[in-house]
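ok trying this again, last paste got cut off
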Amino acid sequence: TSGLVGRHLHPQVVQILQAIGQAWQRVTNKPSGMPNHITVTGASMRWGGLNPPHITHRFGGTADIRPIGTRSGPVSVGDAHYHREATGIIVDLMKQTGATEIRFADNLPGVTAIDRSHRDHIHVSWLSQPQEPWLTKQVSFQLQQKKAKKLGRKK
């Protein structure tokens, strides 16, 4: 995506985003032309570090996701093709996966901070605190369970 802030995410966050994308693909009755995928528009720099104004995009636990519109491509809150209900589903999926911060311009259920400068993207983090490089315990525990299942062990 042009303008992408960074292209690197923690492997656990990649798995979470893939799960959100797969859940979105299973949503039925989408209007014709609506994308059947989510778009990451910002992540972390390869070796972390500060990238103002994206201070929380340091550790691979934070991403920017495009809201959903009735057609593919960029969309912002207030655009005629912005789809509030579909974007709300994405926000709900983020919350279900243990997101600790969801910053967006639309006051959808699950949004933790309303930020008018985030009209064209949803800023989502799975860090325990935006300035810390650790994923939340819930996310780590869920992924440990998943790995244990794959290995045939119980945790």
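PB: full thing came through this time. The first strand starts at residue 40 and ends at 42.
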